[in-house]
Design a protein that fits this description.
This protein has about 100 residues and is an alpha+beta fold. About 45% of the residues lie in helices and about 30% in strands. It has a 5-stranded antiparallel β-sheet. A hairpin with a 2-residue loop joins β4 and β5.
Amino acid sequence: MASKQLNLKQEEELRQFFKGFNRFMLYMWRLGLGKWVNAWPERGGQIMVLSHIGRKSGLQRRTPLNYALIGNDLYCTAGYGHLSDWYRNIKVNPAVEVWLPEGWW
């Protein structure tokens, strides 16, 4: 049981780290530095921002995500799978805005 508690604690610490890091990433995008964020995709991956509506609050939310562009298709990753808030939000309201380094749509 103690090891499960430790894993839950580590998971929460990791989530808190990513919350802080996500704020930094959003700040970089708002400054117009999205291309700089993606300057070294082999190391840091490619980052986009997904703008969506909160399923409970109805407020606009923005989430930085890793993505891959394969042909004309855009794929993004859900670090916590179906438990990710952004994923659950877009299941309720699929109208989203995608910010890429080249522009948004």
